[in-house]
Design goal:
The chain is α+β, with helices and mostly antiparallel strands. It is built from ten helices and ten strands. The chain folds into two domains: about 140 residues, Sandwich (Jelly Rolls); about 70 residues, Winged helix-like DNA-binding domain superfamily/Winged helix DNA-binding domain (Arc Repressor Mutant, subunit A, Orthogonal Bundle), CATH 1.10.10. The protein has a four-stranded antiparallel β-sheet with strand order 2-6-4-5.
């Protein structure tokens, strides 16, 4: 008797919201030179100040964009998931990567080599326009993050980070160690332990063996500062053009 085999389900590139907004002709042109790749946790994809060799459209993974100066710890400036792309603007402008792009949530992405991406995008104004809109939203995310780091409590900052990661993960449980989170937020691990402990005590999150589980989404939103909602509005209006009510 033949064994039953489960059908292989190919990931839909339109899971990436940037690709999903493209007209069919533009989408097809990019997919002709695109390939779905799988990333492991903490994989270094694009290195700060080095040439961008490919552009990535996250499907189920999430990138953290980090910056660092010589002999200084890394600091997270932004996260990019299924709403956007990584390396697109730098590729079009033939500029080095603005930061170190590290895989924060493992998973799938569409990869297009930089040369192919430039050749397709330069002849398609709608693609260039959408890249510029995404760059604007990314810069606003960085600005909000900088202000948040200066003005808001560690508990609020942790809640914001977890909400943004939850949005991109597509599931309630995702990997995160307190050591890594302290590196992302640029603070001592003991400070992060206190903040995450407060969120756990409130019943908003669970934390077991390097994995966070969002238990109470509404509660976590109440613990966050207004930066989380503000960043969401920027992406909604700048890229999709529809305002959140």
């Amino acid at each position: 008797m033949k064994e039953d085999r489960q059908p292989v389900v190919k990931p839909d590139p339109r899971r990436n919201e940037f690709l999903a907004r493209l007209e069919p002709d533009d989408f097809d042109a990019l997919m002709l030179v695109g390939k779905v790749v799988n990333f492991k946790l903490h994989k270094r994809v694009l290195l700060q100040d080095e040439q961008v060799d490919a552009v990535y459209f996250p499907l189920t993974c999430m990138f953290s964009m980090l910056v660092t100066t010589q002999n200084e710890p890394q600091l997270e400036m932004a996260t990019i998931g299924k709403e956007g792309l990584v390396g697109g603007w730098e590729s079009l402008q033939t500029q080095p990567s603005m930061g170190l792009n590290l895989i924060q949530i493992p998973g799938l992405a569409v990869r297009i080599y930089a040369k192919d991406f430039r050749e397709v995008s330069k002849s398609r104004p709608a693609v260039e326009k959408l890249i510029n809109q995404h760059l604007y939203a990314l810069m606003r995310q960085i600005l909000y993050g900088a202000g948040c780091n200066r003005l808001h409590s560690m508990e609020e900052r942790c809640a914001r980070w977890m909400l943004m990661t939850h949005d991109r993960a597509g599931e309630d449980t995702f990997p995160m160690t307190q050591e890594f989170l302290s590196s992302m937020l640029g603070v001592r691990r003991a400070t992060v332990n206190v903040a995450t402990g407060m969120l756990r005590k409130a019943g908003f999150i669970g934390y077991v063996r390097g994995r966070i589980t969002v238990l109470d989404r509404a509660g976590l939103e109440s613990a966050s500062c207004g930066c989380y909602a503000a960043i969401g509005r920027v992406y909604s209006t700048a890229i999709s053009g529809s305002k959140k009510q």
